[in-house]
């Protein structure tokens, strides 16, 4: 695996783990991956996008502007990764 | 014609989709005053039949209480039918301000402002006071009207796992950079009847310099030893910054609501609360009746004591009978069935037995958590409850769910 791909794979796992811990009950039995609809399916409530955004900004030193952190972009982990990659400064 | 064929088809299709998904709501016509015994026409056109009502928010049985109705008539005679004005133009009578003062005294707060509903109160409580420099941190199972109220505000938003104090603490810590932090929670959550740990929430609020907002619609009038609400139940009277509540449930059940709390904030709502500034004043009939309700509740705890007894009795007997009931002390009693069709079928069979209850399922409650929600009232006599319990047992036997665990019910009926 190339370094860039590995980094992306790591990021995917980090974000998926964050969402599991933040939203899913341990006994819920719900499996999620990078394409699972998060907000539109009701799995993630849109109110807490602010803490997810803060987490991404800190973790990846990504200056994501508020206006780009929309419910549409945050609806899947792939959308989130794309947005982080656009703004991350720790590459 | 601007309502084109295309528009008509579009909305007709949307309604059909709701029907296909089992989400279409039908009203049932009640031919009697609200009470423990009501006459219901269902389906439309059917002969009205007498049933025991177990699904009203008439917790204290005051909706058709003779003294409350008398006070309503007096309000009509002395102060007229309508005011044809918002509060700040010519819609404030002496009795409006009197009721606000009585509510403040009853709730143990500094001041109170009336709204047309608690939904309106929640539409003002965040929007008028907080800005993008502030953050509202909301319990994830808060009532839709709190959620809508938060959405209306320009303040930032975050949420914490239902009743999870560790998670709330994490969020409070995370948002120390904001100007004001406001924790928003229901006092009692309407689907499960579970109670917010306001003592712990107030402790966290002090530790992390946050305000506390509580919607106490399912508690005002009967929770706590003297019925002041969840804050009394949890021993934190005077420590809640903002309480929103309704006159439309235990307090007579007509309509109207309020925000009660810190006096500077209440004055802000009087100056800037949009539902207060741009909708009509609460009519004198309701004001006078609600005022009498507060008097009754201040004179005696008889009604809330009876409700407490009814709740304990019903919960005990239903648990003994083998129903899967969320444990608790609130007159909202969720009888867990997990499967939406089962909840609907049982509610229908109970109706045929003369017991009026409603099945709740997704999206009103999370998927796989369908239930029948029973709501008890001080209007119920022991005979009502015994008849209801007997009917529940009969129907429970028919579906073979008595004594069955969650897993067994799910295995039999699916989620």
UniProtKB/TrEMBL annotation, chain A:
Coiled-coil boundaries: none
Matches recorded under PROSITE patterns: CARRIER
Carrier domain residues: 10-88
The protein's name in its UniProt record: Carrier domain-containing protein
Taxonomic source organism: Candidatus Coatesbacteria bacterium 4484_99
UniProtKB/TrEMBL annotation, chain B:
Residue ranges of every copy of the Aminotransferase class I/classII large domain listed in the record: 50-392
GO cellular component labels: cytoplasm
Keyword field: Acyltransferase, Pyridoxal phosphate, Transferase
UniProt keyword Acyltransferase, yes or no: yes
Pathway: Amino-acid degradation; L-threonine degradation via oxydo-reductase pathway; glycine from L-threonine: step 2/2; Cofactor biosynthesis; biotin biosynthesis
Subunit relationships: Homodimer.
Function noted in UniProt: Catalyzes the cleavage of 2-amino-3-ketobutyrate to glycine and acetyl-CoA.
Name under which the protein is recorded: 2-amino-3-ketobutyrate coenzyme A ligase
Name of the gene this protein is made from: kbl
């Amino acid at each position: 695996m190339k370094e860039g791909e590995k980094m992306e794979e790591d990021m995917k796992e980090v974000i998926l783990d964050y969402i599991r811990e933040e939203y899913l009950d341990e006994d819920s039995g719900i499996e999620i991956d990078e394409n699972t609809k998060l907000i539109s399916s009701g799995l993630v409530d849109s109110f807490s996008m602010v803490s997810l955004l803060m987490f991404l900004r800190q973790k990846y030193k990504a200056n994501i502007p508020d206006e780009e952190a929309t419910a549409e972009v945050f609806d899947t982990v792939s959308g989130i990764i794309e947005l982080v990659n656009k703004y991350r400064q720790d590459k | 014609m601007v309502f084109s064929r295309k528009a008509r088809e579009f909305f007709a299709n949307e309604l059909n989709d709701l029907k296909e998904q089992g989400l279409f709501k039908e009203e049932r016509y009640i031919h009697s005053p609200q009470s423990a015994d009501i006459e219901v026409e269902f389906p439309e056109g059917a002969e009205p039949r007498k049933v025991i009502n177990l699904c009203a928010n008439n917790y204290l049985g005051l909706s058709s209480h003779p003294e409350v109705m008398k006070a309503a008539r007096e309000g009509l005679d002395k102060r007229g039918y309508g005011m044809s004005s918002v509060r700040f133009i010519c819609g404030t009578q002496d009795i409006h301000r009197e009721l606000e003062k009585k509510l403040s005294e009853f709730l143990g707060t500094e001041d109170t402002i009336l709204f047309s509903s608690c939904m309106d109160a929640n539409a003002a409580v965040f929007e008028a006071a907080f800005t993008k420099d502030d953050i509202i941190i909301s319990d994830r199972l808060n009532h839709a009207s709190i959620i809508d109220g938060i959405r209306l505000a320009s303040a930032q938003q975050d949420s914490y796992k239902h009743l999870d104090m560790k998670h709330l603490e994490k969020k409070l810590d995370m948002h120390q950079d904001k100007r004001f932090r406001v924790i928003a929670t229901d006092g009692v959550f309407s689907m499960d009847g579970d109670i917010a740990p306001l003592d712990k929430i107030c402790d966290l609020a002090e530790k992390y310099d946050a305000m506390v907002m509580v919607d106490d619609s399912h508690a005002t009038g009967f929770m706590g030893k003297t019925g002041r609400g969840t804050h009394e139940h949890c021993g934190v009277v005077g420590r809640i910054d903002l309480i929103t509540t309704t006159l439309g449930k235990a307090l007579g059940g007509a309509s109207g609501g309020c925000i009660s709390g810190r006096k500077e904030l209440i004055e802000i709502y009087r100056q800037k609360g949009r539902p207060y500034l741009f909708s009509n004043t609460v009519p004198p009939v309701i004001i006078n009746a609600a005022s009498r309700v507060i008097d009754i509740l201040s004179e005696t705890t008889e009604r809330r004591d009876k409700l407490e007894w009814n709740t304990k009795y019903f919960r005990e007997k239903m648990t003994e009978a083998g129903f899967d009931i969320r444990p608790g002390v609130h007159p909202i009693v969720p009888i867990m069935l997990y499967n939406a069709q089962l909840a609907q079928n049982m509610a229908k069979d109970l109706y045929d037995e003369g017991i009026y209850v409603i099945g709740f399922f997704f999206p009103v409650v999370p998927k796989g958590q369908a239930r029948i929600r029973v709501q008890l009232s001080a209007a119920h006599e022991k005979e009502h409850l015994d008849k209801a319990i007997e009917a529940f047992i009969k129907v429970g036997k028919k579906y073979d769910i008595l004594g069955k665990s969650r897993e067994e019910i799910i295995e039999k009926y699916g989620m």
